[in-house]
């Protein structure tokens, strides 16, 4: 099952990259309220962005792994 492992590693790499891009976008969006002095809004935007980015990254990877496992299981061969 080396194909499965390789596809799962590729999925992890892609979803990690997307999560990092989401985190960078979060920091870019949160910088405007921070510069304006609205710390509560900056913290709120940052927390929401971090949770969404990491949640989508982890959830997307798990979904792809579940699909890969279904297509590469012994029953489908």
Describe the structure.
With 77 residues, the protein is an all-alpha fold. It has one domain (2-71). It has two helices and no strands. It has helices at residues 2-36, 39-71. Helix 1 runs antiparallel to helix 2. The N and C termini lie close together (12 Å).
Overall structural domain count: 1
CA distance, first residue to last residue: 12 Å
Number of helical elements? 2
Work out the oligomeric state of the chains in this entry.
single chain
Q: Which residue ranges are poorly predicted, with pLDDT under 50 across at least 5 consecutive positions?
A: none
Share of helical residues: over 70%
Query: How many β-strand runs?
Result: 0
The outline comes out as rod-shaped
Give the averaged pLDDT, no decimals: 89
Approximate strand percentage: under 5%
| Class from helix and strand fractions | mainly alpha
Radius of gyration: 17 Å
Give helix and strand order, one letter per element, not per position.
HH
Largest sheet: none
Question: How is the secondary structure organized here?
Answer:
Layout: H1 2-36, H2 39-71
Helix pairs in contact: 1-2
Which properties best describe this structure?
about 80 residues; mainly alpha
Short structural description:
Helices cover 88% and strands 0% of the residues. The chain is built from two helices and no strands. Helix 1 (2-36) packs antiparallel against helix 2.
